[in-house]
Amino acid sequence: MNPTSRRRFLSGTGGALAALQGHVSSGQPTVSAKTKLILLGTAGGPRPRNSRAAPSQVIWVNNTAYVVDCGNGVAIQMTRARLPLTAVRHVFITHHHSDHNADYGNLLLLAWQSGLQSRVDTWGPPPIDRMTDLFFDMNRYDIDTRIKDEGRNPLIPLIHPHQLMEGGTLFKDDHVSVTCALVEHPPIAPAFAYRFDTVDRSIVISGDTKPCDALIRLARNADILVHEVMYPPALDRLLAPLPNAAALKKSILSHHTPVAEVGRVAQEAGVKTLVLSHFVPAEDPGVTEEMWIETARGPFNGRIIAGRDLLEI
Fold it and tell me: Quick one: pLDDT band at residue 33, thresholds 50, 70, 90?
């Protein structure tokens, strides 16, 4: 059977919310343990690196994992953080650059192979529905073999993609309310930031964006803002070996946020803690952790953390 016929795909947040009614909320509020934010990968860009993994983070609340972005190695990083892959219930993709979605399908497949038996809802811009179908088609032999040979439950009916076109409220369950906003990351559109409001914390993940009023509104009075950062003076060193250095530099400068601007964004949003992540460059001995923090300081009078892989906040 074609995977598309096994699932109901949705376009826009309104349909997504309707599909979740009766699923994400039992109507019986539960006591929320402390919400954890764990940075799984903090490098910007698709090239694998020694000291930092590709972009990904997880919101952990009530033994449930809400994963934001699936850069290369996300399943390994979750395991290193001692989080069971079987706890994944929602996966959010900010945009379709490979450093943010390369292991989207692999996370789902490896969670299932680790014993996942519960529904997983995935959220992101088009074509997340087609990407999901094609990934399962590509791995059909392995999936079907394991179902027949190992007695596993079918994987495909567990995965429910929701295709997003605009900002708004996605859903509210017993543990968290999730909203999103369109951010500016040309030429990639749409691209999203996500906000998670739990009983004890509010956490915003910027995704990739240039300075953006929509993100400031989404992050208003949040406890934590995880924001991408770029250090322009180091770009020439980063790009020097590449034949497309000039074009790539122009691209990076056009749709990312210089670290000197991030403090202003955080101050205008009124956030309490600013977490720097998605570092560009990710590995440059000439740019120290102190330099990242002090350059971001600007007008921001809150707490600033320079993110690192597997840091729990």
Answer: low
Q: How far apart are CA 227 and CA 307, in angstroms?
A: 10
Domain that holds residue 70: 3-22+34-312
Pairing assessment for the beta strands 202-205 and 188-198 based on DSSP bridges: antiparallel
* Count of positions (residues) in the chain: 313
pLDDT at 198 over 80: yes
pTM for this one?
0.89
Q: Is residue 28 a part of any domain in this protein?
A: no
Q: Do residues 227 and 307 touch, judged by C-beta distance below 8 A?
A: no
- Does residue 251 fall inside a structural domain? yes
- Provide the 3-class DSSP secondary structure of residue 183: strand
Q: Concatenated DSSP letters for 102-155?
A: TTHHHHHHHHHHTT--S-EEEEESTTHHHHHHHHHHHTHHHHHHHHHHH-PPPS
Q: How many domains does the chain have?
A: 1
**What pLDDT score was predicted for residue 2?**
41
CATH number at residue 269: 3.60.15.10
Rounded to 5°, the CA angle 40-45-50 comes to: 60
